[in-house]
Every structure is written in structure tokens, then in C-alpha cells.
Amino acid sequence: MQKDELIKRYYSQILLDELSIEKQELLSKKSITVIGCGGLGSPLAAYLAGAGVGKIKLVDDDTVELRNLHRQVFFSEDDIGIKKVKALSNYLKNLNSNTTIEIHDKKSWELSYDNIKSDLLIDCADNLRTSYDLNRVCSKERVAFLTASIAAHVGQILLFSNDSQHCCLECVFPSEGELDANDCADVGVLGPSVALVSSLQSLIALDFLLEQKSHSNHIYRINTKEFLINKNKVLSDSSCKIK
Ligand SMILES: [Zn+2]
């Protein structure tokens, strides 16, 4: 993109201390993979495409349903029955034609690492099996992993940089037995609560892609009923089963 075009498009964010023309160009060279294109993944993908991330891979095998629309507001009634990756891809291409969109209409564990490889793997899925599976892949491949979830009014976000010292989701929350591969959004949730967690996850992703990394190896707990956000460092577990 020409510099004058870049300045015109991203003027309001380039004004910020953490951004500049050079940082904006850096962002345009970055790639992310968004696993799960529902309540967390669809706004996150829209914010990151809008911000100028160069390439976004979308992974989801679900179809837009009427019951999604109260929280997945980037979809419309016209999208019902359409694959989420397709509907979201259309939205993102209209939002920012400079961002390359790649879609995978599959579950993440059906894809090879080469398919999902990028600078940052972002877990927006709604089941534990996907989160722990991606955690294992990211730890092994030493690629940064950003995972978030929300149930009712409580959300959490964790970023593992996977660069030098081992620290992962298993270290913080060791998994036990067979992990549930089913939808865990059945406890109920409000659209704005999901949006809040997705916005914070988007900010953490941008911070990482801009190579500021101040959120690495931390957990954020968000209570959307009490309006509380807690940040704590997480530590490596020497007995971690995937270390
Ligand atoms: Zn670990």
C-alpha cells in the first residue's frame, strides 16, 4: 500500500504512541489464524482486519443459525444457513480489501499445522478439546497462542508466547480425562459480555503483533456482571505433561 493511502486509512490509530507508519507496515506483514468464528472470533477478526493485519486465516465448520444472532452480530438473518467462514470472509473483504483472507471449513484438529500456521494462533473456539489441542500444537511448534473463553458472566484470556521458557495452558489448568468437544455456551451468555472479552482479546493480539509483548504469560479474568478485570502472571509447571 502507498504511504499516503496508508496514512489516510489508518490515521486515527497511527496517532497513538504504540503505532507509527513503520508499525503499521509491520502489521500489514503479520498473519493470524482465528479458530472459531462465532461470538469471540467474528468481532476479533473484524477488528484485526480493520486495524490492518495482513493475512487472516479463518477456521470453523459451523453454519450460521438463528440462535447465534443475539451475540454474533457480524452475521445477519440473510447469513442463516451459510457457513460462518464464508459469511465472515465476505464481511472482512468488504471491510478491508488489503487484508488477505483464507478460509478453512473444517475443525482445527482436521487440519495440518501447515494449514493453520501463522504469527499468532488465536483460539476463539467454544470447546475445551480445541483449546488443549491447539495449546499442544503451539507449544511444540513454538508459536504464540492466545486463548479466550466466556461462560455466563465470567471470561478469561491467556497469551502464551512460546518463545524461550515453557509455559502453557496445561501448566495453568492441567487437563484430565476425555475433553469435551461439544459446545459449552449452553450456560447462557449476553452479546455485550462476549464482545467485551473479544475486544480485550483483540487488543492483546494487536499488542503482540506490534511486538510489544507486555501481555505474554498472563491470565486476564473478566467479570462482566461486576465490571471487574484481573490480571495475573502465570507460571510454568515443571510437571506439565506436554513440556
Ligand atoms: Zn505446560
What does this structure look like?
By secondary structure, the protein is of the alpha/beta class. The protein has a single domain, classed as NAD(P)-binding Rossmann-like Domain (Rossmann fold, 3-Layer(aba) Sandwich), CATH 3.40.50. It is built from 8 helices and 8 strands. An 8-stranded mixed β-sheet has the order 3-2-1-4-5-6-7-8, with helices on both faces. Bound molecules: zinc ion. Zinc ion (ZN) is lined by residues 166, 168, 170-171, 237, 240, 242-243.
Alpha carbon gyration radius: 17 Å
Kindly report the name of the CATH homologous superfamily. NAD(P)-binding Rossmann-like Domain
In the CATH hierarchy, the architecture is 3-Layer(aba) Sandwich
H-E string: HHEHEHEHEHEEHHEE
Bound ligand species: zinc ion
Whole-number mean pLDDT: 94
* Strand element count: 8
Structural class: alpha/beta
Features:
single chain, 243 residues, alpha/beta, Rossmann fold, eight-stranded mixed beta sheet, 8 strands, 19% strand, globular, binds zinc ion
Question: Briefly, what is this?
Answer:
Helices cover 35% and strands 19% of the residues.
SSE map:
Layout (H helix, E strand, L loop, with lengths): L2 H12 L6 H8 L2 E5 L5 H11 L3 E5 L24 H12 L4 E5 L8 H4 L3 E4 L4 H14 L2 E8 L2 E7 L8 H4 L18 H19 L8 E6 L4 E6 L10
Parallel strand pairs: 1-2, 1-4, 2-3, 4-5
Antiparallel strand pairs: 5-6, 6-7, 7-8
Bound molecules: zinc ion.
